[in-house]
Amino acid sequence: MGAVVESVSSSAGHTFGKPVREGIRLLAGLGVEGDAHLGVTVRHRSRVAVDPTQPNLRQVHLIHAELLEELAGEGFAVGPGELGENVTTRGIDLLGLGRGAVLCLGPQARVEVTGLRNPCVQIDAFSPGLLKKVVGRGPDGEVVRRAGIMGIVLRGGRVEPGMAIDVLAPRGPHLPLERV
C-alpha cells in the first residue's frame, strides 16, 4: 500500500489541537477552509506579532502517523489533530522531502512543501516532556525537528481519509527542509 491520508483536522479558533473531521477543503493560496491559519499572510500569533505582512508559508500542517505511534510507544497518548496538524499521513517520509516538493492529496489538492514546523513549549503544556521527543539534537549537534512539515496550497480540493498521496519532486537539487 502506498502513502495515504490517515486523518484530517481543522479548527476555526487558535486552539492547540484541532478536531478530526470527515473531510477538509483546501483553498488555493489560502489554506484549509474554516481553519484559523487560513490566509495569504501569516496567521500564527507569534509571527503576526513580529510582522503581519509576511507570506503565510504555514497554510497546511502535516504530520506522519508513524510519529504518533512512536510517541505512544514512549508513553505519550497523542491522536490525530492533537498536535495541531491538518493532515495526518501514513507511508511517506515527510521529514525527508525537499523544499518545493508537491504533495498530491487525492485527485485534486496540491500542497507545496515549504519547511519544517517549529514546535513551541505549548507541546509540553499538552503533555509534559513531549517537546524533547519532537525537537532534539542530531549527531553533529544540529537541531532536529520532527513535529511535521508545513506547506502552501497550490491547487484546492477536498481531502479525506483514505485518499492516496503522491509526491512530485522539485526540479533541481534537493533542498533540505528548514523551519518556517
TrEMBL record:
<dbReference type="InterPro" id="IPR011037">
    <property type="entry name" value="Pyrv_Knase-like_insert_dom_sf"/>
</dbReference>
<dbReference type="Pfam" id="PF03473">
    <property type="entry name" value="MOSC"/>
</dbReference>
<dbReference type="InterPro" id="IPR052716">
    <property type="entry name" value="MOSC_domain"/>
</dbReference>
<protein>
    <submittedName>
        <fullName>MOSC domain-containing protein</fullName>
    </submittedName>
</protein>
<feature type="domain" description="MOSC">
    <location>
        <begin position="18"/>
        <end position="168"/>
    </location>
</feature>
<dbReference type="InterPro" id="IPR005302">
    <property type="entry name" value="MoCF_Sase_C"/>
</dbReference>
